Amino acid sequence: MAGTLQFDLVSPERRLASVQANEVQIPGAEGDLTAMAGHAPTITTLRPGILKAVSAAGTKAYAVTGGFAEISASSVSVLAERAVPVEELNAQLMDQLIAEASDVSGIEPANAAKILSDLQAMKAAAGF
Amino acid sequence: MPSLKALKNRIVSVKNTRKITKAMQMVAAAKLRRAQEAAEAGRPYAERMNGVMASLAAGVSGSGSAPRLLAGNGNDQTHLLVVMTAERGLCGGFNSSIAKLARQRAAELVAQGKTVKILTVGKKGREQLRRDWSHAFVGHVDLSEVKRIGYANAAAIARQVTASFEAGEADVVTIFYARFQSVISQIPTAQQIIPAKFEEAASTNALYDYEPSEEAILADLLPRNVATQIFTALLENGASEQGARMSAMDNATRNAGDMINKLTVQFNRTRQAAITTELIEIIAGAEAL
Fold first, then answer.
1. The pTM of the whole model exceeds 0.80
2. I want to staple A17 with a disulfide (CB 3.0 to 4.6 A). Which of A9, A56, B14, B91 is the partner?
3. Does this UniProt record's set of keywords contain Transport (chain B) (predicted)?
4. Residues of chain A neighbouring B42 (CB-CB closer than 8 A)
5. Mutate which: B208, B232, B236, vs A, most A CBs within 10 A
6. Shortest Cα distance, chain B CAs vs residue A66, angstroms
7. What is the ipTM of this complex?
């Protein structure tokens, strides 16, 4: 498919990306999904994982910890609670994220375990 | 009439004050720029969050199964006022105007027979409200150690607020902060965050697929939305504080300048008077001979 879609990645503290992308791979709460131009309008929550945006300039990957994505036929907006470009990711930061997640866990114990294991899987996958 | 020496000392001391206020003004200007950038960086997130929430809320609110954070718990007896002010003073009317608005609102609510609870964020607001409302204090968030306000700070406040709502300790939550309009104008604002209020339902009502269900997403997003609103308010407050301090210090610098001019005139007159007196004495002495 030739069409591109407008990809925005924003966190509360800054706008991380706003580019034309060919496809965006999103770690959805109920499984990964890839959004391409012409995708049915969807809103999905995120689980901690790696978000990838494939554009003409190459692939950019971001680690996100949660939030939601709004997908329409011509755009994808991802509102992530924390988002970090993968290049900036390191073991220390991962540990910090995990510590933050375990700190919140008092609120929703059912989800906390899942979030924590997702984060740990992400850390393992990133090779730290 | 004060002596020459006393006047001289006065002038020196006012000059020193002017140096300090000038420095504070410049520091505030630099911080203001950073605070404004932070507020602008946070805006896209808040806007989109609001848009999505509004369209979600419009879809759910009619169904009667709306989550409590959105619909409220059916009461409006206990009001929690979250009063956000600065940690430092010397910023003009910034802290007082927020505290004043909160005090007014609290008095209105009490007059209507409601229960008022106050959570203060920032030391200055607490100090100002202590005299009349210390019995209503339920907590205090200290941000004096925080150099740069992050989302985590807002999330912590949001958790505290949401927890007290869930526990039935508060029915309506309102935040008080100053909206940044320009360097010379900051508007103290009261904003109700629980039950959530949205400006208007988004008209771009594309039919979305929800994954997981609409209710689950809403339940997930509502607490985030509370945190986002608090975060936005904190950022606006940060910019407003620096703006208010900048203009207050600018005024102070100018006042100090005026005062120095006045004192210098007085100093010169006094000196001239002393010289004239001496001359008269000498002439009078010479004539007497």
1. yes
2. A9
3. yes
4. 12-14
5. B208
6. 10
7. 0.78
| Pair of tokens at residue B5 | 């020496």
Which tokens in the block code for residue A125?
């996958």
Domains of chain B plus CATH, in order, are 4-21+249-288 (1.10.287.80), 39-246 (3.40.1380.10)
Inter-chain residue contact A43 with B52, CB threshold 8 Å: yes
Q: Rounded to whole angstroms, how far apart are CA atoms B85 and B92? A: 13
Lookup: tokens for A24: 């965006």
Q: Which residues of B touch A79 (CB under 8 A)?
A: 45, 48-49, 52
Residue A82 phi, psi dihedral angles, 5° rounding: -130, 135
The chain B residue lying nearest A97, using CA atoms, is B152
Maximum pairwise Cα distance, chain A: 46
B48, B49, B211 ranked by CB distance to A44: nearest: B211
- Cα separation, A48 vs A39, whole angstroms: 22
Three-class secondary structure of residue A24 per DSSP:
strand
